[in-house]
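pinned: reference chain
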Amino acid sequence: MSYRKTYTTIKGKKYTLFIADTAEKRKKGLNSFKNLPFRTGMLFVYSTDVDHKYEFDKIKMPLTVIFLDKNMNPIEIFHTKIAQKEKIKPKNSYRYVIEIPRTNIYI
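pinned: its C-alpha cells
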C-alpha cells in the first residue's frame, strides 16, 4: 500500500507523517509498518468530524495520539501502552488524528 506524506512541526521538532485518508489505510494504521524512521508517524484524515473510539490492542509500540479539530487545533492528547485494551476517545469530535511512536516524540 502506498502512502502520501506530509510534514509538520510539533514542539519545535519536524515530523514526517504518512497520510491515512481512506478507510483501508485508517484500519491498518501504523500496523502497516514494521519499522518507522525516527520522528515519523501517521496522520489519519476524515472528511467530516467523527467521534468514534480508537483501539490499540494490536499495536506493538507505545504511542502519543493527538486528536485535532477541523482547523488542526489539538483537542486532546493521549499516551498509549503496548497492546492497550482500553479504547480512547477525546471529549469532542475530531477530524484528524496524529499517531507517533513514543520513542520518536518528546511531548
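why pinned: The longest helix spans residues 23-28. The chain has one domain: 5-104.
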